[in-house]
Automatic annotation (TrEMBL):
Disordered: annotated segments: 1-58, 229-256
Organism: Nocardiopsis terrae
Name of the protein in its database record: GTPase HflX
Pfam families in UniProt: GTP-bdg_M, GTP-bdg_N, MMR_HSR1
InterPro entries: G_HFLX_dom, GTP-bd, GTP-bd_M, GTPase_HflX, GTPase_HflX_N, GTPase_HflX_N_sf, P-loop_NTPase
Main subcellular localisation: cytoplasm
UniProt entry keywords in alphabetical sequence: Cytoplasm, GTP-binding, Magnesium, Metal-binding, Nucleotide-binding
Domain Hflx-type G: 292-457
Family note: Belongs to the TRAFAC class OBG-HflX-like GTPase superfamily. HflX GTPase family.
Domain of life of the native organism: Bacteria
Subunit structure: Monomer. Associates with the 50S ribosomal subunit.
Amino acid sequence: MNTADTHGSDRAGHVARGQDAFREANTVGDGVHADDASREAAATDGDRYEDPGNAPDQGEMELAERHALRRVQGLSTELTDVTEVEYRKLRLERVVLIGVWTRGTQSEADNSLTELAALAETAGALVLEGLTQRRAKPDPATYVGKGKASELHDIVEATGADTVICDGELTPGQLRQLEDVVKVKVVDRTALILDIFAQHARSSEGKAQVELAQLNYLLPRLRGWGDSLSRQAGGSGGGSGGGVGLRGPGETKIETDRRRINDKMAKLRRQLAHMRTAREVKKDVRRTREVPSVAIAGYTNAGKSSLLNRLTGAGVLVENALFATLDPTVRQARTPDGRGFTLSDTVGFVRHLPHQLVEAFRSTLEEVADSDLILHVVDGSHPDPEQQISAVREVFAEIEAVDVPELVVVNKVDAADPDTLRALRTRYPDLVEVSARTGQGVSELVTALAEALPELAKEVHALVPYSRGDLVAKVHEDGRILSEEHTGEGTALHAFVPALLAAKLDEYTPSGV
Ligand SMILES: Nc1nc2c(ncn2[C@@H]2O[C@H](COP(=O)(O)OP(=O)(O)OP(=O)(O)O)[C@@H](O)[C@H]2O)c(=O)[nH]1
Ligand SMILES: [Mg+2]
């Protein structure tokens, strides 16, 4: 918690307050300028692994495509005969949610279940009922207590639900034993999030990362799922202990499956290592340009992609669903005083992000840790934004991003409760309030962002011969020009530039300046 706190608002800094008049006058923010040339540059830099085209309406196309494809997800061909991989196509239709509430207030417990409902809907399920049980800790056998479990069975039967989703990560044994009582498929929050990620991954790297996480989750659960599902499939009616005759061949099959899964995981790890190298190379290119990078991070559905769109007109997918964005999108942008920087959208965070996913997405999340500034986008219209802020900061700590300066950006102020906003202002005095929807506050955000960006290191005076027009162009691109004059010998420049570019300009610096 201490690490998270040191990451606090005091360091976010730079945000001028009391500019309400200015804000009123600027309700339609035009955002950071991203010209076509720089957008083209972003495309050739190839920050996406499967470039879906660079048309401005790309986000809309993705959205349409997603709606068209929703719920038609195939299995990887290599695993089609592993029947226990069943959970990968959860085919959630009608679900009942159940949560064990161990600490905190009633409203926190309710928020948690509301979030689970949003996750379930994002995965394509229809939520019929949500229940919580207050207990000191989850029951080691059936997650909820025995009595509650049979009550749950009655509700499942009465509503005609086909799946129960538990708000936590269950042990293989708990999953199996609860299934025995409720007689329908039981999945946990982790499996649900993995399923959403599987539906949403678009790049080959994202797909590989999710598949690795799924297999990782599946491995210790093979037997549990296998037992329970085969009993159900066999229609033997929930007798305990499984069929004697099934045990031998069942175990052999599990061994085979386990080996196949291990092989598949090894292959995925190799592929990912390879893709990672490719990404490092691209990052190096960016680093040699020394353009500062800004990462937009925050809780899922906070409005990160909307804000990126508002800031650059990038046409990135926006959807009122959790985890709409899984693949990093990087755009070139420019501050009002002309300094170039990159702005990247990232995968949303969630409370108790399954550990397998943090592992799998480590390379993607490291983009955040490697950035020069984090715009931490917070959903101001959520009933409990502070809890989301802490959840996000926990992930920052896990990916070692706590040293990166953070600017807290409270989004959706058009829909936020004034009391919530007041509480946030007290807690994070340096925050910026915006609405990606209406554009309110966006120009203040641009100013705050420009101030928080690391200053370009070097002031140079140079006389660049006309044969080195490329260098002058670079100064225009990456630097901030104070004066420029065309003389008989070349272009005389006075500018602030990144250190690396300053070194290149060194030989054109007249001595004595
Ligand atoms: N009222 C209001 N709604 C907003 C605002 N910004 C975004 N939204 C809505 O919030 C939802 C989520 O927006 P996204 O931009 O997809 O959020 P995200 O943080 O990128 O979400 P993930 O990629 O899923 O993590 C969408 O329905 C947006 O229309 C805002 O300023 N005001
Ligand atoms: Mg997004």
